[in-house]
Design goal:
The protein is an alpha+beta fold. The protein has helices at 13-18, 41-67, 72-79; strands spanning 3-6, 26-30, 33-38. 51% of the residues lie in helices and 19% in strands. It has a 3-stranded mixed sheet with strand order 1-2-3, with no helix packed on it. Strand 1, helix 1 and strand 2 (26-30) form a beta-alpha-beta unit.
Length: 81
Amino acid sequence: MPNIKPISDLRNYNEVLRDIAIGEPVFLTKNGRGKFAIIDINEYEKLKASLKLMSKLAQGDQEGKESGWMTLEEVEAELGI
């Protein structure tokens, strides 16, 4: 179940921070609407790394579609294997 709190709860931020766990962010609302998410720093770093990887994979896929794909032999020759 999502952990949702009004942003006014930040007055006692220690209580809000205590509720944060890996895989369980705290969502803060303002005027009844979602405004912020507080997540564990390790989870944030994993999310950033995942986004970077997905972006690189999409870029490689696009380049493959535009320029053509390399065969296994071409890759091995390129890498000197």
